[in-house]
Specification:
Elements lengths: L12 E4 L2 E4 L3 H9 L1 H5 L11
Antiparallel strand pairs: 1-2
Length: 51
């Protein structure tokens, strides 16, 4: 969503390919967990995050 994370210690997070990704909300984390390649660029050029 593009929101800043004010307190990383309380932010939802996921690990993917050895990296930790932090999210502004649980909805963003869930979207990432369903298809991390979409958000990390591992799917050959398709980028974006939509709610």
């Amino acid at each position: 969503m593009g929101h800043e994370i004010e307190d990383i210690t309380n932010a939802p997070s996921s690990k993917y390919q050895g990296n930790t990704y932090y999210f502004c909300c649980e909805n963003c984390k869930t979207s990432f967990d369903e298809n991390p390649a979409e958000y990390t660029g591992d799917n050959h050029g398709h980028h974006g995050h939509h709610h």
